Amino acid sequence: MTMNAKPAGEAVLRLPDGTELKLPMHQGSEGPAVVDVRSLYKQGRVFTFDPGFTSTASCESQITYIDGDEGVLLYRGYPIDQLAEKSNFLEVCYLLLHGELPNEKQLTDFTRSITYHTMLHAQFDRFFEGFRRDAHPMAIMTGAVGALSAFYHDSTDIADPRQRMIASHRMIAKMPTIAARAFKYSIGQPFVSPRNELGYADNFLRMCFMVPAEDYEVNEVLARAMDRIFILHADHEQNASTSTVRLAGSSGANPFACIAAGIASLWGPAHGGANEAALNMLAEIGSVDRIPEFIARAKDKNDPFRLMGFGHRVYKNYDPRATVMRKSAHEVLAVLGIKDDPLLDVAMELEKIALVDEYFVEKKLYPNVDFYSGITLKALGFPTDMFTVLFALARTVGWIAQWTEMIEDPDQKIGRPRQIYTGAKTRDYVPVKKR
Ligand code: SDX
Known about the structure:
This protein is mainly alpha-helical. 49% of the residues lie in helices and 7% in strands. It has a 3-stranded antiparallel sheet with strand order 1-2-3. It has a 3-stranded antiparallel sheet with strand order 4-5-6.
């Protein structure tokens, strides 16, 4: 993608030796302007240094916009709360992939294409047999999605737009089937095939919770909650796993391998693994009266403990997804008749305390999307080790949209960061007898 941003003057960088480097600036449609440092090394033989990318724009994108200070999240310009309320996950998938909401025919065609890609190659089911029954479902997802390129090599030519589209639809369609199989395998129940007459979330819940011994009727309120959770997790700008997918894709790796790399990155507890970690933390706290002890630990510099589900690199305000997630948690618990969920009591009290505690206020640590999702997912019947799998299922469309945007950028080149080297200078080899 060529720079669609507008020129915004230039920055002048003066080096200690007096050299002045002129760097063009660009302004996007929203958000901070950027200093274009692409010519920096050529001009001044110096690098920028930004290990955590706290001040670095790695790419130009038109997919998702976050204003961390205002707690704003837009998918192709549409606010997340409106999409969560009024749209559905497959329509949001179309929006993220194509940039516009679909008309009725486009939505019907897209839905049909996804529906008719939900089945897996019959031999793929044997792939799961290679895992131990107690394998973490994220380990299975990472392996299984990487293995898709072994089964669907007819859609791995990234230069062919048609193959890119087929691979994209295959992954969006097959992630629920793979995720449900990872769950069924871990609990020793038979796999359930997808049904074409069911909606995306309904199909997934049925593949997870139906047993051959009896009929299974999907609860529409729970399916709507599941669909909304997928919408909330669908994309989130250049987060760690999306950046992983872009970097892997920049080498020309096939789309299945790139998404598998994204799944691996999402697994970390600082990222997508936080929903599992947040629920485990709530269980460890156990009761409202133990909250002060854990808040003290979170503040203690010598204690690595952090309040999981709190804080965010970008949001220095309430994560707008957490607001929707919180409402959904109450709705699901009410439908299921779960009156006094001790974990929810602990979560509500923890949130109340953290939002007034000066440590969290000063560091702008608000609940993020992972704080309430665990409570809802547990109420829906998922074990904690499936939580990040559901995050990966939903985020697949975001990864694919970002990967496609990168591949279609005519200026795209392999990502190859540099470093500041502080290791040993050149020295001669010393034979072992002389060491
Ligand atoms: C996701 O990037 C994305 O968009 C991710 C995501 C997406 O949709 O893709 O939004 C999904 O990953 C949400 C975040 C889920 N992770 C967690 O809930 C884990 C707990 N949160 C932290 O690990 C942390 O807040 C991060 C990793 C999320 C953000 O870390 P940063 O931006 O690198 O901030 P930091 O670690 O430098 O923390 C700043 C300060 C530090 O104190 P000081 O060193 O300045 O004294 O805040 C403190 C931290 O110690 N801090 C916390 C804290 N998070 C940060 N202290 C206690 N509890 C916490 N949760």
